[in-house]
Amino acid sequence: MATYQEKTADFATLCKEQGGTWRNINPEFAARMALQNRFRTGLDIARYTAGIMRRDMAEYDADASQYTQSLGCWHGFIGQQKLIAIKKHHGSTKKRYLYLSGWMIAALRSEFGPLPDQSMHEKTSVPALIEELYTFLKQADARELNHLYRDLDGAREAGDQVAEQRALDAINGFETHVVPIIADIDAGFGNEEATYLLARKMIEAGACAIQIENQVSDAKQCGHQDGKVTVPHEDFLAKINAVRYAFLELGVNDGVIVARTDSLGAGLTQKIPVSREPGDLASQYNAFLETETVTSAEDVNEGDVVIKQDGKLVRPVRLPNGLYRFKPGTGEARVILDCVTSLQNGADLLWIETEKPHVGQIGAMVDQIREHVPDAKLVYNNSPSFNWTLNFRQQVFDAWQEEGRDLSAYDRDKLMSAEYDDTELAALADQWVQNFQADGSREAGIFHHLITLPTYHTAALSTDNLAKGYFGAEGMLAYVEGVQRKEIRQGIACVKHQDMAGSNIGDDHKEYFSGEAALKAGGKDNTMNQFG
């Protein structure tokens, strides 16, 4: 990428070539605006971020401590503030991504209003949110660079060459807020052609990684709810192929596909695939069906389906709604087959939706997968649907029980109670929660840890706290003490909301365009000056 000085020189040459007709164009201002908009299209972003993910995956393969993380964001502003905070507190955005949750789109972004996570929201809202997130991240770039340009101008006006060089170094070493997005395409919103068309729009908006699940599109459920219905492997692989073709068509050759399996909690299938020979994929899928042996025509009712398995005729158990049931206790075996099959047929990463956050359970499944695909790795949902406090307190309880420790002071079923908060068990459980991501990455092959719905919950919690006080006895103090004072003292950039929304960028651009005649908003009467 060209430096500030190189970009300025390029525009100076271009302006000179116009024979004086561009005499009002300042090459340095043009360079500033160009650097503020490094990514011209969503495809530029997708190609750039795909490269980041591939490098991160290789680094994780070499060292499992090099895992990646993300938080789900339901609005561009939320994603922007997240990345600004990461840069402020951690100095770099490396190995930090964004997650785009289909659940949050359904709940918060549908024109129908709040919807359950059942693929009922408009499919166009998915690429629209990707575009929105990247629009806000690019604006964060422009804002931060604009501050650096003002530092440069201030140093020059003061004749401080050291400060001028420091500002130039900061501009040339600037790290973008644009990071990879792992985007949820649910079950593809239809057949494989529908999946391809939506994937293409998502990639054009900037997505470098698309997560797709093996549920039936028209019966899709949230991974943490009951009633999930899976599809045969052939159907799922067709959709993986569709996503890959979309990446290749658009020139994002290293785009990432995350294959999610909901089989651990799914006990139903809509379709019995056609098996052509013993042991093929369809045969393996059908082997998990709950069946009843057929010895004569008398065993078969009107409309029943009969298949041949291991040389015998069997009747798959069919429910009144026409769905077929899997044998109880086959969930983990189906997960293993799903994962191996997906990786062997074009997927890059796995997502296993589990019913609890248990490193041992996840690791046991990954170990079996790695017997077939040694570099298998996961994207894992650190889900808010889990009661993390209760789960980990019970895990500690169970571990201590195996050790033979005295547990008479604890009631396993009531460990969520605040009465246990100051106990040794609770303290150890919190330590296990704190270490969960590092432990899971080391022991269970988890490359990427995400939380699907965190900003849904933080928005609700912070609004509840503000509403409680503001509409109560605290009045305006609830905002001042609970929000603004904390913003100022914690250095939250958004306290200067006019600047965050682009007011200073606009003022500087007006000056570029109009010179001394520019009517600017940031003068002495701007109340934002109260914040220093």
TrEMBL record:
<keyword id="KW-0460">Magnesium</keyword>
<dbReference type="GO" id="GO:0046872">
    <property type="term" value="F:metal ion binding"/>
</dbReference>
<dbReference type="InterPro" id="IPR040442">
    <property type="entry name" value="Pyrv_kinase-like_dom_sf"/>
</dbReference>
<feature type="binding site">
    <location>
        <position position="184"/>
    </location>
    <ligand>
        <name>Mg(2+)</name>
    </ligand>
</feature>
<keyword id="KW-0456">Lyase</keyword>
<feature type="binding site">
    <location>
        <begin position="101"/>
        <end position="103"/>
    </location>
    <ligand>
        <name>substrate</name>
    </ligand>
</feature>
<feature type="binding site">
    <location>
        <begin position="381"/>
        <end position="385"/>
    </location>
    <ligand>
        <name>substrate</name>
    </ligand>
</feature>
<feature type="binding site">
    <location>
        <begin position="223"/>
        <end position="224"/>
    </location>
    <ligand>
        <name>substrate</name>
    </ligand>
</feature>
<feature type="binding site">
    <location>
        <position position="260"/>
    </location>
    <ligand>
        <name>substrate</name>
    </ligand>
</feature>
<feature type="active site" description="Proton acceptor">
    <location>
        <position position="222"/>
    </location>
</feature>
<dbReference type="InterPro" id="IPR015813">
    <property type="entry name" value="Pyrv/PenolPyrv_kinase-like_dom"/>
</dbReference>
<dbReference type="Pfam" id="PF00463">
    <property type="entry name" value="ICL"/>
</dbReference>
<protein>
    <recommendedName>
        <fullName>Isocitrate lyase</fullName>
    </recommendedName>
</protein>
<feature type="binding site">
    <location>
        <position position="452"/>
    </location>
    <ligand>
        <name>substrate</name>
    </ligand>
</feature>
<keyword id="KW-0479">Metal-binding</keyword>
<dbReference type="InterPro" id="IPR039556">
    <property type="entry name" value="ICL/PEPM"/>
</dbReference>
<dbReference type="GO" id="GO:0019752">
    <property type="term" value="P:carboxylic acid metabolic process"/>
</dbReference>
<dbReference type="InterPro" id="IPR006254">
    <property type="entry name" value="Isocitrate_lyase"/>
</dbReference>
<dbReference type="GO" id="GO:0004451">
    <property type="term" value="F:isocitrate lyase activity"/>
</dbReference>
